[in-house]
Amino acid sequence: MRHGNSGRRLSRTASHRDALYANLVTSLFTYGRIETTEAKAKELRAFADGAIRWGVEAAPLISKGDKATPAEKAKVVHARREARKVVKTRGALERLFSEIGPHFAKTKKNGGYTRMLKTRFRVGDAASMAFVELIGLAPSPSAEA
């Protein structure tokens, strides 16, 4: 029985799942919209929302620039390091703190930063597929190529 055990295993080891979610979150932040299986998409939302939360909390401190106190600068460094645990590329991390975090800080939302749209059944194994996208942000131009 699985009492108290949350999350999907997805037929992977714990380290493989962590790497999978980190790669999916990185791709989501890089492109703004990704297509994956429905089960992965449902689990991805929690990881993406957690990383976005670090960008939202750091946005007002980053906007202060040089006027920030040393304690506020330390909070920004802490937020970047925590987000770096999930976001694996420098470009995606920069986009998180320069675009995504400030955008959602303006909306005053406490979660629900991503949307899942069911799309099709994959040819080959008939897995149900879904888009995961950031709400209110247009996909980056390289995502549509």
What's the gist of this structure?
It is built from 4 helices and 3 strands. It is α+β, with helices and mostly antiparallel strands and 145 residues long.
What's the β-strand tally? 3
Structural class: alpha+beta
For the biggest sheet, the summary is: 3 strands, antiparallel
Specify Rg, calculated over alpha carbons. 16 Å
Share of residues in helices = 40-55%
How far is the first residue's CA from the last residue's CA? 45 Å
Specify the CATH homologous superfamily: Ribosomal protein L17
What's the architecture, going by CATH?
Alpha-Beta Complex
Summed up, the domain count is: 1
Beta percentage is 5-15%
At the first level of CATH, the class is Alpha Beta
Net shape: globular
Q: Which helices and strands appear, and what pairs or packs with what?
A:
Blueprint: H1 14-31, E1 33-37, H2 38-64, H3 70-84, H4 90-107, E2 114-121, E3 128-134
Antiparallel strand pairs: 1-3, 2-3
Structure in words:
With about 140 residues, the chain is of the alpha+beta class. The chain has a single domain, classed as Ribosomal protein L17 (50s Ribosomal Protein L17, Chain: A, Alpha-Beta Complex), CATH 3.90.1030. The protein is built from 4 helices and 3 strands; from the N terminus they run H-E-H-H-H-E-E. The chain has a 3-stranded antiparallel beta sheet. A hairpin with a 6-residue loop joins strand 2 and strand 3. The longest helix is centred in the middle third of the chain and has 27 residues. It is globular and about 55 Å long.
